[in-house]
């Protein structure tokens, strides 16, 4: 069996909305269940056979360097690349293009979301359709509780259910190496803007639809939700 493709993680953002919770930490280092969110994401990929990771560092990247130096997940090859404090996602990705070796394709995700997406099925879906990029589509969690009514009587109440009538970009991409030609080395290059929009227009972007669990950690409220799920033994992203 051939080795699993490398995984690029975008870990350099400013994380402005989560700073209230951890002002001195980059977002991927905010702890859930006593472990940085980054640890949870790496474990997810490792459970599907991935061993080589390239981390795009930026804001407070030295914190991630210090954590990685302790070899928190033995057996994984983790390469840390400073991609600039102010760089956007496309610029960061472009700047690690030379760190992917000879791999014809690679995985890409953000350092601030966990999911129970089947990464092996995602890879198989990508290989089968032959396009340049696959993005995982997820249902966004609602911000508020949902009331199901009979007149004014509340028939059911669901605390922050998923919005099931739409899909959003959940990260967990697979890219052919040729997709990097759509990027440019400028701090302002944002992967989710011109590059992905152009790929969609050209028919080179496919969606792997994941109706299961997905949760980003943008705010202290998101952090509390993830930490509570872990404490209750109900963390769906556990391998």
Describe this entry's structure for a reader.
With 239 residues, the chain is α/β, with parallel strands linked by helices. The protein has one domain (7-231): Alpha-Beta Complex (Spore Coat Polysaccharide Biosynthesis Protein SpsA, Chain A), CATH 3.90.550.10. Helices cover 24% and strands 26% of the residues. It contains six helices and 14 strands. It has helices spanning 37-46, 61-69, 89-95, 119-129, 194-201, 220-231, and strands spanning 7-11, 31-32, 35-36, 52-57, 77-82, 105-110, 113-115, 133-138, 146-150, 153-158, 168-169, 173-176, 205-210, 214-216. The strands form four sheets. Strands 1, 4, 5, 6, 8, 11, 12 and 13 form an eight-stranded mixed β-sheet that branches. Strands 2-3 form a two-stranded antiparallel sheet. The longest helix has 12 residues, at 220-231. The relative contact order is 0.19. The mean pLDDT is 90.
């Amino acid at each position: 069996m051939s080795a699993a493709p490398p995984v690029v993680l975008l870990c350099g953002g400013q994380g402005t909305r989560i700073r209230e919770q951890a002002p001195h930490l980059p977002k991927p280092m905010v702890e859930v269940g006593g472990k940085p969110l980054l640890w949870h994401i790496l474990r997810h990929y490792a459970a599907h056979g991935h061993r080589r990771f390239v981390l795009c560092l930026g804001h407070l990247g030295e914190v991630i360097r210090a954590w990685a130096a302790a070899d928190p997940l033995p057996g994984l090859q983790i390469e840390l690349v400073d991609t600039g404090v102010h760089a956007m996602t496309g610029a960061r990705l472009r700047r690690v293009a030379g760190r992917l070796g000879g791999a014809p394709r690679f995985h890409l995700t953000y350092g601030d979301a966990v999911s129970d997406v089947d990464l092996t099925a995602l890879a198989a879906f990508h290989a089968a359709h032959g396009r340049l990029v696959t993005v995982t589509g997820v249902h966004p969690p609602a911000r508020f509780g949902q009331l199901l009514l009979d007149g004014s009587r509340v028939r059911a109440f669901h605390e922050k259910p998923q919005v099931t009538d739409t899909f959003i970009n959940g990260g967990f991409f697979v890219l052919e190496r040729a997709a990097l030609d759509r990027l440019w080395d400028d701090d302002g290059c944002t992967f989710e803007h011109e590059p992905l929009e152009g790929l969609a227009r050209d028919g080179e972007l496919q969606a792997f639809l994941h109706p299961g669990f997905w949760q980003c950690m943008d705010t202290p409220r998101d952090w509390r939700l993830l930490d509570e799920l872990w404490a209750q033994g109900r963390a769906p992203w556990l391998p």
